[in-house]
Design goal:
Elements lengths: L7 H4 L15 H8 L3 H19 L4 H18 L9 H5 L13 H23 L9 H5 L12 H6 L3 H23 L1 H21 L4 H17 L6
Protein backbone atom coordinates (compact mmCIF):
# COMPACT_ATOMS: atom_id res chain seq x y z
CA UNK A 1 0.00 0.00 0.00
CA UNK A 2 3.04 2.29 0.08
CA UNK A 3 2.29 3.87 -3.33
CA UNK A 4 -1.03 5.18 -1.97
CA UNK A 5 0.99 7.35 0.43
CA UNK A 6 2.23 9.41 -2.52
CA UNK A 7 -1.20 11.09 -2.39
CA UNK A 8 -1.51 10.94 1.39
CA UNK A 9 -3.59 14.10 1.73
CA UNK A 10 -6.07 13.04 -0.96
CA UNK A 11 -6.40 9.49 0.36
CA UNK A 12 -6.28 9.71 4.15
CA UNK A 13 -6.35 13.19 5.71
CA UNK A 14 -9.43 15.17 6.72
CA UNK A 15 -11.64 16.11 3.78
CA UNK A 16 -10.37 13.28 1.58
CA UNK A 17 -12.63 11.00 -0.44
CA UNK A 18 -12.77 7.75 1.54
CA UNK A 19 -14.60 4.43 1.45
CA UNK A 20 -15.13 2.16 4.45
CA UNK A 21 -15.41 -1.61 4.18
CA UNK A 22 -18.08 -2.62 6.71
CA UNK A 23 -17.97 -6.28 5.65
CA UNK A 24 -14.29 -6.59 6.56
CA UNK A 25 -13.57 -4.35 9.55
CA UNK A 26 -15.43 -4.19 12.89
CA UNK A 27 -17.47 -1.09 13.58
CA UNK A 28 -15.33 0.13 16.47
CA UNK A 29 -12.20 0.09 14.30
CA UNK A 30 -13.95 1.95 11.48
CA UNK A 31 -15.15 4.60 13.93
CA UNK A 32 -11.69 4.93 15.47
CA UNK A 33 -10.01 5.26 12.09
CA UNK A 34 -12.61 7.71 10.80
CA UNK A 35 -12.29 10.01 13.83
CA UNK A 36 -8.48 9.98 13.92
CA UNK A 37 -6.93 13.46 13.67
CA UNK A 38 -4.46 14.30 10.93
CA UNK A 39 -1.58 14.53 13.41
CA UNK A 40 -2.14 10.92 14.47
CA UNK A 41 -2.28 9.76 10.86
CA UNK A 42 0.96 11.55 10.00
CA UNK A 43 2.62 10.06 13.09
CA UNK A 44 1.47 6.56 12.11
CA UNK A 45 2.80 7.14 8.61
CA UNK A 46 6.23 8.08 9.96
CA UNK A 47 6.18 5.11 12.31
CA UNK A 48 5.24 2.80 9.47
CA UNK A 49 8.12 4.09 7.37
CA UNK A 50 10.52 3.43 10.24
CA UNK A 51 9.32 -0.15 10.61
CA UNK A 52 9.42 -0.61 6.85
CA UNK A 53 13.03 0.56 6.72
CA UNK A 54 13.90 -1.69 9.66
CA UNK A 55 12.31 -4.64 7.90
CA UNK A 56 14.32 -3.96 4.74
CA UNK A 57 17.52 -3.73 6.78
CA UNK A 58 16.76 -7.01 8.57
CA UNK A 59 16.39 -5.39 11.99
CA UNK A 60 13.88 -7.23 14.19
CA UNK A 61 12.06 -8.45 11.10
CA UNK A 62 9.27 -10.27 12.95
CA UNK A 63 8.43 -7.25 15.09
CA UNK A 64 8.73 -4.93 12.10
CA UNK A 65 6.46 -7.12 9.98
CA UNK A 66 3.85 -7.31 12.75
CA UNK A 67 3.90 -3.52 13.21
CA UNK A 68 3.70 -2.97 9.46
CA UNK A 69 0.65 -5.23 9.27
CA UNK A 70 -1.13 -3.38 12.09
CA UNK A 71 -0.41 0.01 10.52
CA UNK A 72 -1.54 -1.20 7.10
CA UNK A 73 -4.85 -2.49 8.44
CA UNK A 74 -5.43 0.78 10.26
CA UNK A 75 -4.93 2.76 7.05
CA UNK A 76 -7.18 0.33 5.19
CA UNK A 77 -9.83 0.94 7.86
CA UNK A 78 -9.38 4.66 7.27
CA UNK A 79 -9.81 4.26 3.50
CA UNK A 80 -10.62 0.85 2.02
CA UNK A 81 -10.70 2.11 -1.56
CA UNK A 82 -7.65 0.01 -2.38
CA UNK A 83 -8.50 -3.04 -0.28
CA UNK A 84 -10.33 -5.15 -2.84
CA UNK A 85 -8.07 -4.26 -5.76
CA UNK A 86 -4.84 -5.77 -4.51
CA UNK A 87 -3.56 -7.89 -7.37
CA UNK A 88 -1.82 -10.50 -5.26
CA UNK A 89 -2.26 -13.03 -8.05
CA UNK A 90 -0.05 -10.90 -10.28
CA UNK A 91 2.69 -10.91 -7.65
CA UNK A 92 2.35 -14.63 -6.96
CA UNK A 93 3.29 -15.54 -10.52
CA UNK A 94 6.77 -14.19 -9.80
CA UNK A 95 7.28 -16.91 -7.16
CA UNK A 96 7.43 -19.86 -9.55
CA UNK A 97 10.54 -22.08 -9.20
CA UNK A 98 13.74 -21.16 -11.00
CA UNK A 99 13.43 -22.29 -14.61
CA UNK A 100 16.97 -23.52 -15.14
CA UNK A 101 19.34 -21.73 -17.45
CA UNK A 102 16.81 -21.03 -20.16
CA UNK A 103 17.18 -17.56 -21.61
CA UNK A 104 13.40 -17.36 -22.12
CA UNK A 105 11.43 -18.27 -18.95
CA UNK A 106 8.36 -19.25 -20.96
CA UNK A 107 6.04 -20.15 -18.08
CA UNK A 108 6.52 -16.86 -16.27
CA UNK A 109 5.98 -14.77 -19.39
CA UNK A 110 2.82 -16.64 -20.29
CA UNK A 111 1.40 -16.30 -16.79
CA UNK A 112 1.96 -12.55 -16.85
CA UNK A 113 0.42 -12.21 -20.31
CA UNK A 114 -2.59 -14.26 -19.24
CA UNK A 115 -3.05 -12.01 -16.22
CA UNK A 116 -2.86 -8.87 -18.35
CA UNK A 117 -5.31 -10.40 -20.83
CA UNK A 118 -7.86 -11.21 -18.14
CA UNK A 119 -7.59 -7.74 -16.58
CA UNK A 120 -7.93 -5.76 -19.82
CA UNK A 121 -10.57 -7.99 -21.43
CA UNK A 122 -12.69 -7.90 -18.29
CA UNK A 123 -12.37 -4.11 -18.05
CA UNK A 124 -13.31 -3.62 -21.72
CA UNK A 125 -16.24 -6.07 -21.70
CA UNK A 126 -17.53 -4.58 -18.47
CA UNK A 127 -17.66 -1.16 -20.14
CA UNK A 128 -19.70 -2.25 -23.18
CA UNK A 129 -21.91 -5.17 -22.05
CA UNK A 130 -23.38 -4.14 -18.68
CA UNK A 131 -21.85 -0.68 -18.96
CA UNK A 132 -22.81 2.32 -21.10
CA UNK A 133 -19.55 3.54 -22.60
CA UNK A 134 -20.71 3.04 -26.20
CA UNK A 135 -24.20 4.58 -26.03
CA UNK A 136 -23.62 7.30 -23.42
CA UNK A 137 -20.77 9.48 -22.17
CA UNK A 138 -19.83 8.43 -18.61
CA UNK A 139 -16.48 10.24 -18.67
CA UNK A 140 -18.27 13.53 -19.21
CA UNK A 141 -20.29 12.95 -16.03
CA UNK A 142 -17.15 12.01 -14.11
CA UNK A 143 -15.51 15.27 -15.17
CA UNK A 144 -18.19 17.18 -13.23
CA UNK A 145 -17.94 15.20 -10.02
CA UNK A 146 -16.57 16.97 -6.91
CA UNK A 147 -12.80 17.42 -6.90
CA UNK A 148 -12.36 14.97 -4.01
CA UNK A 149 -14.19 12.11 -5.74
CA UNK A 150 -13.10 10.10 -8.77
CA UNK A 151 -11.37 12.88 -10.68
CA UNK A 152 -8.14 14.54 -9.60
CA UNK A 153 -9.32 18.03 -10.53
CA UNK A 154 -6.12 19.10 -12.28
CA UNK A 155 -5.30 20.57 -15.67
CA UNK A 156 -6.57 17.67 -17.78
CA UNK A 157 -9.95 17.83 -16.08
CA UNK A 158 -10.31 21.44 -17.17
CA UNK A 159 -9.46 20.44 -20.74
CA UNK A 160 -12.15 17.76 -21.00
CA UNK A 161 -14.92 18.90 -18.64
CA UNK A 162 -16.55 21.32 -21.13
CA UNK A 163 -15.92 19.22 -24.26
CA UNK A 164 -18.32 16.24 -24.20
CA UNK A 165 -17.23 15.13 -27.67
CA UNK A 166 -13.63 14.78 -26.45
CA UNK A 167 -14.82 12.85 -23.39
CA UNK A 168 -16.75 10.42 -25.59
CA UNK A 169 -13.78 9.99 -27.93
CA UNK A 170 -11.49 9.38 -24.96
CA UNK A 171 -13.88 6.73 -23.65
CA UNK A 172 -13.95 4.94 -27.02
CA UNK A 173 -10.15 5.07 -27.20
CA UNK A 174 -9.86 3.59 -23.69
CA UNK A 175 -12.19 0.69 -24.53
CA UNK A 176 -10.44 0.07 -27.86
CA UNK A 177 -7.03 0.10 -26.21
CA UNK A 178 -8.17 -2.41 -23.57
CA UNK A 179 -9.19 -4.77 -26.37
CA UNK A 180 -6.07 -4.24 -28.49
CA UNK A 181 -3.34 -4.34 -25.83
CA UNK A 182 -3.71 -8.06 -24.93
CA UNK A 183 -3.29 -8.90 -28.62
CA UNK A 184 -0.09 -6.85 -28.80
CA UNK A 185 1.35 -8.60 -25.74
CA UNK A 186 0.90 -12.02 -27.34
CA UNK A 187 2.64 -11.08 -30.62
CA UNK A 188 6.42 -11.36 -30.00
CA UNK A 189 7.47 -8.60 -32.38
CA UNK A 190 4.92 -6.18 -30.87
CA UNK A 191 5.23 -7.24 -27.25
CA UNK A 192 7.69 -4.54 -26.14
CA UNK A 193 5.69 -1.83 -27.89
CA UNK A 194 2.59 -3.11 -26.11
CA UNK A 195 4.36 -2.92 -22.75
CA UNK A 196 5.45 0.68 -23.41
CA UNK A 197 1.94 1.59 -24.56
CA UNK A 198 0.44 0.01 -21.44
CA UNK A 199 2.71 2.02 -19.14
CA UNK A 200 1.83 5.27 -20.94
CA UNK A 201 -1.85 4.32 -20.79
CA UNK A 202 -1.76 3.92 -17.01
CA UNK A 203 0.22 7.13 -16.55
CA UNK A 204 -2.47 8.99 -18.48
CA UNK A 205 -5.26 7.48 -16.37
CA UNK A 206 -3.32 8.28 -13.20
CA UNK A 207 -3.35 11.97 -14.16
CA UNK A 208 -7.14 11.95 -14.55
CA UNK A 209 -8.45 9.56 -11.90
CA UNK A 210 -7.88 8.39 -8.36
CA UNK A 211 -6.67 5.01 -9.57
CA UNK A 212 -6.73 1.89 -7.37
CA UNK A 213 -3.56 0.21 -6.21
CA UNK A 214 -3.95 -2.37 -8.99
CA UNK A 215 -2.65 0.21 -11.46
CA UNK A 216 0.55 0.65 -9.49
CA UNK A 217 1.12 -3.10 -9.30
CA UNK A 218 0.73 -3.27 -13.07
CA UNK A 219 3.82 -1.07 -13.50
CA UNK A 220 5.96 -3.66 -11.68
CA UNK A 221 4.45 -6.47 -13.72
CA UNK A 222 5.13 -4.56 -16.94
CA UNK A 223 8.75 -4.12 -15.92
CA UNK A 224 9.09 -7.81 -15.14
CA UNK A 225 7.48 -8.83 -18.42
CA UNK A 226 9.75 -6.46 -20.36
CA UNK A 227 12.83 -7.89 -18.66
CA UNK A 228 11.74 -11.44 -19.45
CA UNK A 229 11.18 -10.49 -23.08
CA UNK A 230 14.83 -9.48 -23.52
CA UNK A 231 16.78 -12.55 -24.75
CA UNK A 232 19.86 -11.84 -22.64
CA UNK A 233 17.91 -11.70 -19.34
CA UNK A 234 18.21 -14.36 -16.67
CA UNK A 235 15.84 -14.80 -13.78
Amino acid sequence: MLPSFLFFKENYLAGSFRFQEHDFFPGWLLALADQSPDLLLISLLMLMMIFWFGFLMGFKTQISAFALTLCAYFFYARNAFYLKTLAWDMLLVTLVPFCGFASHPLLLRRLLRLQFTFIYMYAALNKIIPGNWMRENPLHYLMHYPDQSVMRGEALKGLFSFRPELCYLLGILIVSFEFILPVLLWIPRWSRWGIAAGILFHLMLSLLFHVPLLFLLLFAAYGLLFGLSVPSCRR
